[in-house]
Write a structure and sequence with these properties.
The protein is mainly alpha-helical and 162 residues long. It has one domain (4-53, 62-134). It contains 9 helices and no strands.
Length: 162
């Protein structure tokens, strides 16, 4: 994940700042923001290559990674709708900075990218690589119980009538 310094564009050299901006930024985050940032650091190590190829015609597309981070934030912070997510990104500067936005895209951009993410199975691939790395060579024993209702008789059938 890009650090705050990389997002700003090495402003430390320009303004002759001797401390790390990333450390200062993380000091002012809430616990939820810190937990989300930690989750992003783990997930982004295992993401498949992302990117929309710009063909040189039309407007340049928004970067893919900030939009993916925003969708992860939607799930992490239990935000119901995309419009609520956009409002949160516009009002919460820390979340906007964590996601990597300088300008928040429109709702239509978000919905088009979500379709691309689901068509390419981005999160399934990410989960697959995470499980392969973290559970390589280990046997994972667990019990999965299904609680689906099964149609059955409440009383046993009367065997004398048959």
């Amino acid at each position: 994940m890009k650090s705050l310094t990389e997002i700003i564009g090495d402003g430390q050299l320009l303004f002759n700042i001797s401390f790390d901006l990333q450390d200062i930024f993380e000091e002012y985050l809430t616990e939820q923001h810190r937990a989300f940032l930690a989750m992003l650091r783990v997930i982004e190590e295992h993401l498949p290559p992302l990117g929309i190829i710009y063909t040189g015609r039309g407007r340049k597309p928004h970067e893919t990674l900030p939009i993916l981070r925003a969708f992860l934030a939607k799930s992490f912070f239990t935000i119901e709708t995309t419009s609520d997510l956009l409002q949160r990104l516009k009002s919460d500067s820390s979340l906007r900075r964590i996601c990597g936005f300088t300008e928040v895209p429109s709702a239509s951009t978000f919905s088009r990218r979500l379709k691309i993410f689901s068509d390419h199975h981005i999160m399934e691939q990410t989960l697959y690589t995470m499980v392969r790395e973290y559970h390589a060579g280990r046997l994972v024993g667990h019990i999965s119980r299904d609680s689906t209702a099964i149609c059955a008789r409440e009383k046993p059938a009367n065997k004398k009538r048959t």
